[in-house]
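Q: Protein A?
A:
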Amino acid sequence: MGALRASAPEKHDGKNPLSVLATMAIVGGMFAVAGLPAYAISTPEGASSAKTSLVAQSVSVSSDATSSTATRDGFSATSPEQLEQLNEDQIRAANDAAYVASGARELGDDYPWPYELTDDQGGGLSPLNYYYRECVDFVAWRLNRDQGYYGAPFKWVWSNLTPFGGNGGQWEYNWEALGRTVSDVPIAGAVAYTGGNHVAYVKAVNADGTVLLEEYNWIPGMYSQRTIPASSVAAFLYPPT
């Protein structure tokens, strides 16, 4: 047998196996991190600071914005009062048109309120305190006119002309109660109580024993004239003084 050769000692590179494992783990981790999305590894701004500072922001508003106001579309609702006024104005316009067509002015009517709403139309009292366009209001106007009272303050109104009742059928009683002249003899300017609830104004006394009357509301709400026998008039109420 040949002589035995001593085996060469095993070589070592001087690296600790544990350190090799650790190095491999770190390198693997680096590759893993490199594969993550960018936002997963980004560092938040200011993360290096222990405290995060908040900066107050100021907002400025334009002067145009502060001075501007809400703009409406121009629509406005009509109130019940306005609707009522519109309705009354339409009735007055119709009354005036009918009056003009009647020719009353040409006949000599000078009553100041021929277009006003009658009681049946929802109207009220005239400045003489009788209902507009009633027989009594017209006659009261004529008595004032004949004594020179063409506007307020009038001399004769309900309270002193017929204080015991203003209806046409009450005028004779008022005359008697106040000591005024009541006669069956007609004179121009007197009140003709024709009976019932109606009075008229005596415009003229004719030689044939008739009287020419002017009146309102013999034709409803309108001025008219008629000639009738004086004997058919219940009483002539002479103008008050």
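Q: Protein B?
A:
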Amino acid sequence: MGAPLRVGLAGLGSMGRNHLRHLSSRDDCRLVAVGDPEPVALADAVANTGATGFADPLAMVHEAALDALVVAAPTTAHAALAAAAIERGLPVLVEKPLAATIEEGLALVIAARDRGTPLQVGHVERFNPAVLELGRRLADGWVGTLYAATSRRAGPYPARIRDVGVTVDLATHDADILSWIAGERPTRVFAELAQRIDAAREDLLFGLLHFPSGAIGMLDVNWLTPAKRRQLAVVGEAGMFELDYLTQRLTFTQADIAHPTLIGGYATTFKGDVEVIEVANREPLAAELDAFLGVARDGGRPVVNGIDGLWALAIATSLLQAAAEARPVDLVDLAGRIPAR
């Protein structure tokens, strides 16, 4: 495998600490530098890992001897940190969302393409074993024609987020997953938002995505639900998959419409034939870092690249626009601005 890769970590918030845990315990890399302006978090990271600490993460990117960079700083800092890494030719993993605006994200994608630098975006659900197994079953034709996919991502209000609302923070996950399931990008979106707890931004989103094939995607995303929920349902002509991201449980239901049952003697229902699909559980972040470090070491195209991240951000931004203008938003013009590869 050669010498371990020298990796820097920018940001020691909630997600940054998860990266810290993994990067500091791997054999194929060395966490040589960490950057965060919060002195207690920085001191703890330095003490526990032996990495060099930088109060300014951007200075770390410019000054530390690195082979790769992980960006887990607040969203508004993503563009500057990733751009500095790309300028140095450092493979970079940027936590989702890719950037705070479409323009910033587009600039990163173009810079990475022109420089030939790998740019991976941290849509960690793509590495969830249940999601990967779902993808294999869909490719094998288990549901036939895809009709609809519904994603629910809900939980209590997080103390960690202050710079973006729930749409850019959470719905980017689902915009990416639903596009991946459909195998295409949406052409039209619509949304409704609410602001209940957050003093500055939306904390509830209901969104609709229309795909060229006619498939429909629905997003239910909020910071208002007292218990954390991460769920996905995929419905097609031959049946339905249901997935729990947290437990990594995946089931397939094939309805037996010829033999309805009754509830209380009067309410017709169809239980269907439910199959629990075996999934080998693994923490998705570990698999995501496997993929990133493999690209950083050997080259190639990231599993979730900058264009994927840019599309997720563009869809989320368009959902915000649709809600603000109380109308569907067409994505055809936007699609013309995003590179195909």
